[in-house]
Design a protein that fits this description.
single chain; alpha+beta; 6-stranded mixed sheet; 15 helices; 13 strands; about 15% strand; disordered C terminus
Length: about 550
């Protein structure tokens, strides 16, 4: 295909496997807060020690070492708290290993690009597919020094990976570094210390099916009463029987409250986590549980009622609706968002844009949304795009990971399927085949809108091109009819029109629709055709 890479097959994205809801713990007494802080600090210290032991084990970890650590924690807490701490430790260690692997991959991509550009003559021009040489000898020298630095980092990272060493900070590396920049962060040392301690607390418990209300350690009754099983050293703080402390706050989950109530009344497992938002001075309770694996909708079923193709950009979603034959319907839709500011603001912007997109998809009656399976890991390296700092920031700003998680979970709640497609050439071919034909005096088409059509057609299993046909020798069909997408029994498919003699000039056709009179010809090419059918220029074929 002229050097084009092979396209990956489209697939239906699996739905979410768990949910989480949160509510605020209101009207806590000072004694309640003191108990929560004491429990969080005690169990946080246990979690820190357990994480240190797990990192020391490295690749030598086994079921026996896990059981040994859990027995040690059980003596100073309880068996369920010990199980929750060891599980959280293993999850954190596994996440650090995945991040380490991604870091090694990023370094390898940068090294490969540097070696390629350094091997080219100075000043050699690049192409759209490959970067050229560096522009001066000075830049070449600086990049050669950077190559040596990246190779040293890569060798150290690979050595850590092979030895099973990871670097984990309970409380977060970013907050730890903020300690050295308190002035820029507009924080005092006491304020930073409060945040640091709150992030390192551990007040969480995994659920257990068959136990009362689905959790013995942190129990929430159907009436919203919250009680905590205190660890052995803090048992003297209990205000109820069996070493439990009952909070004065009552919780009521507004979102998924009925689903949560059904689970706890059936004594099914529900995990809880209590944490403090230091900035607001508020305590929150988060409940989470697993859902049974949802059966993935077959791809043909997802395509049955058409598709909405969505092009993801740095500041908006460009969406276009297509029918089941791949024909664009209506006009383009854009859902803007602003990804500047804090992480909470960015997350809210993504959720609002996706909410509008999903509501529109439901209103038009489609069953699936087609979106690109984006992964900009090799594109974010500074070695590939050089001085194009704004372009690198643009690529890094496109929400890929968070978008996938949000879209899949939100669409599943409304019965919509997500079809992931290969992102290759969607903007290029969409602009080439769809941007200009769909422009009207009342409708503008951007390259992003055309890319949405290309994505939708690829999700439906059709090529991006508007037509696929054997190369004709002229404008007639001596070589063969153009291939069609619609089946022989579909109404509105490509076909011949009734003869012009069956209706008065300018009058309605036998079907009742008025046809436009042929315009006057100025050249031989513009002369009306003598054929008995006229093909709509926008009718989609093969």
């Amino acid at each position: 295909m002229g050097g084009l890479r092979e396209l990956a097959v489209s697939f239906v994205v699996p739905g979410p496997c768990g949910v989480a809801v949160r509510d605020r713990l209101r009207h806590l007494t000072p004694q309640d807060e003191r108990v929560l802080r004491a429990v969080g600090a005690h169990q946080g210290a246990l979690a820190s020690g357990d994480l240190k032991a797990r990192c020391a084990d490295g690749l030598g970890h086994s079921a026996d070492t896990w059981a040994s650590r859990k027995r040690e924690l059980t003596g100073v807490s309880s068996s369920r708290i010990a199980g929750a701490i060891t599980k959280a430790t293993h999850d954190q260690w596994a996440l650090a290993r995945r991040c380490q692997a991604a870091h090694i991959q990023n370094l390898a991509a940068g090294i490969t690009m540097l070696r390629h550009r350094l091997s080219l003559p100075v000043g050699e021009k690049g192409t759209k597919r490959a970067a050229g040489g560096y522009r001066s000898k000075g830049e070449w020298f600086r990049k050669s020094r950077r190559l040596a630095a990246l190779e040293a980092r890569h060798a150290a990272a690979v050595a850590d990976w092979q030895a099973g060493r990871v670097r984990v900070v309970r409380g977060g590396k970013r907050l730890l570094n903020t300690r050295h920049h308190l002035t820029e962060a507009q924080l005092t040392e006491d304020q930073w210390r409060q945040r640091w301690e709150a992030e390192r607390w551990f007040i969480a418990a995994d659920g257990e099916s068959g136990k009362r209300f689905g959790n013995e350690t942190i129990r929430v009754t159907p009436d919203g009463e919250v009680s905590i099983k205190l660890p052995a050293p803090l048992a003297h703080l209990a205000n109820t029987r069996h070493g439990r402390y009952t909070l004065t706050s009552i919780v009521a989950f507004a979102h998924r409250g009925a689903e949560w109530a059904d689970r706890i009344e059936a004594h099914r497992a529900v995990a809880y986590r209590i944490h403090l938002d230091v900035n607001r001075g508020r305590w929150y309770l988060t409940a989470s549980w697993q859902r049974p694996a949802v059966r993935i909708v077959p791809l043909e079923t997802a395509r049955a009622r058409g598709m909405i193709g969505v092009d993801t950009n740095a500041d908006h979603f460009a969406a276009y609706r297509l029918d089941r034959h791949g024909n664009p319907v209506g006009g383009p839709h854009r859902f803007p968002y602003d990804l500047s500011g804090s992480a909470g603001h960015r997350d809210a912007q993504i959720r609002h844009a996706l909410t509008r997109l999903i509501n529109w998809a439901k209103s038009v009656g489609v069953a699936a949304i087609g979106i690109e399976d984006l992964d900009f890991a090799p594109e974010k390296t500074r070695e590939k795009h050089g001085r194009r700092k704004r372009f690198r920031q643009l690529v890094s700003g496109i929400p890929t990971g968070k978008l996938k998680a949000r879209l899949v979970s939100m669409a599943a709640e409304h019965g919509l399927s997500i079809v992931a497609v290969d992102p290759a050439y969607t903007s290029l071919w969409g602009g080439q085949h769809w941007q200009k034909p769909l422009v009207t005096p009342h409708r503008t088409m951007s390259r992003h809108d055309a890319a949405g059509i290309a994505i939708g057609r690829r999700a439906l299993g059709y090529p991006v091109r508007r037509r696929t046909a054997p190369p004709p020798r002229d404008r007639s069909d001596r070589v063969g009819h153009r291939t069609v997408q619609a089946g022989s029994g579909d109404r509105g498919r490509e076909g011949t029109r009734p003869p012009a003699t069956d209706r008065p000039p300018g009058g309605p056709s036998p079907s009742g629709k008025r046809k436009r009179e042929p315009s006057a010809s100025n050249t031989v090419r513009d002369a009306p055709s003598t054929q008995q059918w006229v093909q709509d220029s926008l009718m989609r074929t093969g």
